[in-house]
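Retro notes
What went well: the complex prediction finally ran end to end.
Inputs used:
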Amino acid sequence: MSKYLGIDVGSTTVKVCVLSESLEILYSSYERHFARVKECVLSQLAVVKEKFGEGEFSACITGSAGLGLAERSGVAFVQEVQAAFTAIRKYYPDADAAVELGGEDAKIIFITGGTEQRMNGSCAGGTGAFIDQMATLLNLSVGEMDAMSLRAEKVYPIASRCGVFAKSDIQPLLNQGARKEDIAASIFQAVVDQTVSGLAQGRRIKGKVLFLGGPLFFLKGLRRAFCETLGLDEEHAIFPENAPCFMSIGAALYAQNVKAMPLSELDSRIRNVRASDEIVTGEPLFRSRAEYEEFVARHKASDLAFADIKTYTGDAYLGVDSGSTTTKLVLITPDCKLLYEHYQSNNGQPLDIVSERLAEIYALAGGRIRIAGAATTGYGEDLIKAAIKADFGIVETVAHFKAAVHFDPKVDFIIDIGGQDIKCFKIKNGAIDSIMLNEACSSGCGSFIQTFAKAMGMEIDEFSKLGLFASHPVELGSRCTVFMNSSVKQAQKEGASVEDISAGLSSSIVKNAIYKVIRAKTPEELGNNILVQGGTFLNDAVLRSFELETGKHVVRPGIAGLMGAFGAALYAKENIRGASAVISEEELKNFSYASRSHVCNGCTSHCNVNVIRFSDGRKFISGNKCEKGAGLQPHSDELDIYHYKYERLQQCRTGSAGRRGRVGLPLALGFYEQLPLWAGFFETCGFEVVFSEKSSRQLYFRGQHTVASDTVCYPAKLTHGHIESLLDSGVDFIFFPCESYNLDEHDSVNHYNCPVVAYYPELLKANNERLTDENFVMPYIDLNDEKTTVRALRRALARWKLPASLIRKGLKEGFARLNSYYADVRARGEFILQRAEEEGKHVIVLAGRPYHADPEINHGIGKLLTSLGVAVLSEDAVFHMGRQVLVNVLNQWTYHARLYRAAEYVTEHENADLVQLVSFGCGIDAITTDEVRAILEGKGKLYTQIKIDEINNLGVVKIRLRSMLAAVEEQKRHSDEKRD
Amino acid sequence: MKREIKTAEQTVDFRDDYPKFRPEMKKTHKILIPDMLPVHFGIIVEILRKDGWDIELLQNDTRAVIDEGLKHVHNDTCFPALCVTGQFIDALKSGKYDPEHTALMITQSGGGCRASNYIPLIRKAIKSEFPHVPVISLNFSGLEKDSGFPMTAGLMLKLAYAIFYGDTLMSLFNQCKPYELEPGASERARQECVKAVTAAFDAGKYRRYKKIVRQMLERFSAVKRSGEEKVKVGIVGEIYVKYSPLGNSHLEEFLLSEGCEPVVPALMDFVMYCAVNNVNDAKLYNKRSAATPLFSLVYRYLLHVQRKIIQITQKYGFEPLHDFEHLRRCADKVINQGVKMGEGWLIPAEMAALAETGTDNIVCAQPFGCLPNHIAGKGTIRTLKQMYEHENIVAVDYDPSATKVNQENRIKLMLSTARENLQTKSSDKDKR
């Protein structure tokens, strides 16, 4: 008599289940495999053998990592969703839907009302691995994080599409001192949102819902978040006892159709599975021990001299670098000897670390040392500066540059790979010439190795040392960490050793930096005197990979991880005048703080404001987009054209009542420019014009369930919310034209819209069940041709029987309003330019698309810039002043052609620079960014790009913009010096 | 309705100087073309060689191709650009070609999708390492006048026939291969047919398409096949990843190995789609050019030939190509024919037509983040599923770092549903 055996090999665990002939569950197990898939399966089989003896088994394998194993062992395989489906039909025939979260996959099965099975796409985060990664970031175990989440008081918006994004949401929260309980709950909420929006895509999850997979079984906080979001009571949310190994049960059920074999044969088949030769391997990092030792000796030369803090007497300078994942402190003597250094992982509490270390410094100094100056830098610069009353706060890029020059005055290229970001600067004529930072999506940074090492149950040092002498490092590709994660998994499945993976990861990080962040085509482009720094370069395997890849010897200071802090200390030393205000030993003894967060209702942004109150009564406020949140007088929006455009645009209707009915115009995509045209048209034709409500994250969530493609840009995704808003406001119909062609401005070969702007109405209509032919009018129009436009509008609005003459009149009025809008924007631009000139302010052309005027899309970057003391213009306010340009690429989109001319304008104006706003997922900007960069850099201007998405992380943006402004300043000083 | 525009008088040129392709290079240069459609391009290469072009179809397909692409192309650019560029650079670096006497050629459509920009992207990518290699544009819209491939009416006609023959071959092969009783028989038939087609071109008799198609049908009819019913899987999507094995991780082979019959819609559909779009633009927006009547004429001619081929194919009991007018009617049910960027309305049209001709299971292949496919691909799936109850579509994103395991797992999910549907269908039949 044979039994049924199901083996589920997931990305992180192995689940095994044995069923009796009568399909009774006799045994089941759940175990993490730590990438040793084969060994883990074999050990589980041994347990089965112990329990049930030799004997015949019909076996079936399932799971994402089981595919290769099944193929090569010749054991039957069933796709895991299918396995789950089989088990559901057997044990829960009345279920309506099932949600399953695994290590790397998320799935939804709709059972009633049209069976459908869905899996997450290749870019969807929000899975078990994502939760693990986040727990590591919080320095908690997953269990602890779960327990904390149950005590949450509020939920922050966090992106869960990919771990890297979520990190950049969470890190600022941590640095601002937000409660970990709240963050934990926010992480779970993010996973739920991801599942609902990314997987359900328009279909509602309702009825009796089954929750499967490890994370949903073990994590109560996650369960709660799901139930609350889907509105399920206990009766309708089912968490089966055997949820973690549900798929293996399904596989065992499937095994009914499989021929039985003795357990010993199954064992030997799996044992004999060989690694395939599909993985690509590279050269070893070091050929011999001797080669390694020579390498170590060479880098020893760039270590800093030490002085003993216990005996030294005199002045010293303090530098603190409060980074995204680590906190660094150094104390140096006036002749730059190192008295004290500290490098520690934040664990989310940078303020505690700094105060503890400062206390230690005072204790060690024993009253002999006077801190003569202190400076802070990094993500937590403001907070730490306020807390310890440091004399200066400087942008981290400036700090790094200062430090680098100390080690190599001839340095022309600096690359810093830190925990969360990669920074590169080119140095020309003693000033920062260009800055490159990693985009939120392509960061293959230090914390990735760290997270990975932890997942393997090792410390990072130990893990990376393993790679030094690996004989066949695996090629893992160079892209974002989430993708790398699955490359690693694949390599493991193919049987690569931990050593080879460790070496492969190191070289991957290097390749990512060189080819994706710096975007160098050849190593020569980097420079001749390269200095590498950042904690990640302390890792010899990474350093060696970098030297191998570039074919150059580089300088790595012994304090590579402390360069920001060292630079800050140097800065304090050079710039301090008079006595330092830094917190004294006495004050420090009484130092404590408490943090609290609340929603600021100062304006429509509703920022989550975090208030830290220090023991001496001072307070520090963060998370605010403007001064209002900090309790200060708000600064004027006068010099921010983005603010002006947004307000002006909406003043384009007269508000006349319509005898023909009410038409809804969504404040989205192309309407950000054509709103005056259509408002004028419809009002003339006798309709009342209703705009959708202003964008917000809440509005986005309202339409989220109709988003069909989760990789489309945020401006497009927001449109779904605007449609819901209009539907709810009870308009008679929504008007949203499809326009392949934009207005021809005679700047480009053709005048297309981008495909998304052109045809998004089609997608909206197809994916929102509330839209019909009656209430959603989307004619195909080319506004450059009056005849066909009139015809198309007449047909589309046939119900109202509008005479052609009226339509023509409407269009005329529409164009008049549009032209007056253009004229006003340009006039405003001129006004801002004039004011900037009078006040000696620098001008930044924040160049994007018309729809970037939406504050929910630009996240108030215009405001941020004006608060940094510059005037802000937009591409559409200046491009008419720039000359026509000929570019390398095919220039065929109206909005994008403006970018090139705006860039040309900037190259002709000394007091202006350009910052390009790019929406994540914008395919066309992959082309324009390089071209705009070429135009600017060709004329010696800096190029800065800011990628924006639904996440709102102004902290990073601020650093970038401040770095840029500092570099502009520096350049100006240089050219002034030359002139003198 | 012209807006007032202040046009600046001067123009600034930010273009890099790139090597142009001059007609005399025909004699001195070898031209490399990427492996987009193995069957079709194989035939086309032969034709061009006969015309005196030294041309080679690249077949390098290693990881190095992708790595070169990653190094040289912007992170966010679409996957096909990356594959094509990678394949070119990998080939140029192989040492097999003299960089002073080699040129690269690729097709260019000039539509509103960023794919029109592949040519400048490739130029940028090779600029520093291969500064003398010209990039040639193969297009029908008069783009890249200084480096366009010299197009003549005669050559266009030859290309059109080559595409018809390629489509027929691809379709017949896929209809035989999964069912062949003697392994390798379909492949032999295909090779023989390629030879026959090439010979017809050599002899200048390529326009006798009825005879040629009949020959192919007869040759494939001779392949002995089992009558067993297999899962049919349609492949639609972005043109490059739809056809190129490099782009879609050998999707056709994978489906064959899973015991399925791949159904790949014809390349001619795309050509006719482009022609129709020109005519549609004239209708919708009055965008008439001198070429518009020509496009309309070309379209009618192609349709005529296509319909004849369909008639002949049906006589031999094979599933014919889709009638393009039928495709257009299918499109109208799902989306407006105004959606014309990238593959636009053709994708939902093909998905609908496949469902109507008995292929419910579909892989909709697109590069990660493909702009038109947000709307025409993923965006239409909901509508299609409502129209065709059994339509079983999986959208697969192709990307340099998306692992094969991940893609295959999703396709397998679609296949398991497909198999179940097939079982229900055949047991329903048995009951009757």
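What we learned: Chain B is about 50% helix and 10% strand.
What to try next: split runs per interface for comparison.
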